[in-house]
Amino acid sequence: MKAFSAESWRARLVRLPPLAWLTAFFLVPFLITLKISLSDAATAMPPYLPVLDWQGGREGWASFLEALDFENYAVLWFDTFYRDAALSSLAYAGAASLVLVLLGTPLAYALARAPARGQPLLVALVVVPFWTSFLVRVYAWIAILKPEGLLNAGLIRLGLIAQPLEILNTPAAVVIGLVYAYLPFMVLPLYAVMSRLDGSLREAAADLGAGPVRVFWSVTLPLAAPGIAAGALLCFIPMIGEFIIPDLLGGSDTLMLGRVLWGEFFSNRDWPLASAVAVLLLLIVIGPVLLFRGAGREAAQ
């Protein structure tokens, strides 16, 4: 009994640091954001009301709770602007995630099948973009995609087009930027899964007469499906709230929740409504995570 008690206490102590970390850096900030989202905008500091008076006692708490309301969430529900922003964010993130799966899967497969001696170098080449500032890399795409940029100059010189293409400040530019920025996040987890696959399964399929393409579709791809789902989810979640890429590459007409959130905080100075948008963004993100966990449990059973 004592051994069991000591073991249970050790298990609790092991779980304590991550729980404390999540509480301090996720739960507490979320509760603060949730409280602000139930407040009203005000020309004051802080720019919202009510503010809890810790010395007000029970009456202070009562008046504080009575002043909270769901007005900002009603605005999000009835105003089509925010609904369109949420749908647009999902569309951009979904399209970019699909492209990432189509590009990242064969790239990760090529890395996993490369000679063992060369794999560290190839993985390093995938990670190299992280050595440069994210903002600088996005600005570089402006120089590539603008009408007089490198891409149009190269296509004209090759005779493929007669007039420069209008790519910058379009949805295509946003998707290109998202795919470029998040491709390593798709390749690395998928490479980790594919590099651990049992090679004897591919050999067995080949011995049974399956060609390389059939082996990939029938053996490698099903076994790597959890890695594909994890990589797509790892990219999809941050892309929903992306701000820099749609702001620099998409132009003023690009509507995404990240830009809406920035505008409400820093342009309109409406912290309560911006906090409500942040809570909405979190709820949208939780959905794919729960679906992925449910699928993982079903696969484990």
TrEMBL record:
One of its GO terms (biological process) is transmembrane transport. This is Putrescine transport system permease protein PotH. It is a multi-pass membrane protein. Residues 86-292 form the ABC transmembrane type-1 domain. It holds the Pfam family BPD_transp_1. The keyword Cell membrane applies. InterPro entries: MetI-like, MetI-like_sf. Keywords: Cell membrane, Membrane, Transmembrane, Transmembrane helix, Transport. SUPFAM superfamilies: MetI-like. Belongs to the binding-protein-dependent transport system permease family. CysTW subfamily. Gene3D superfamilies: MetI-like (1.10.3720.10). The chain crosses the membrane at residues 90-109, 121-142, 172-194, 215-240, 271-292. GO terms for cellular component: plasma membrane. The keyword DNA-binding does not apply. It is found in: Cell membrane.
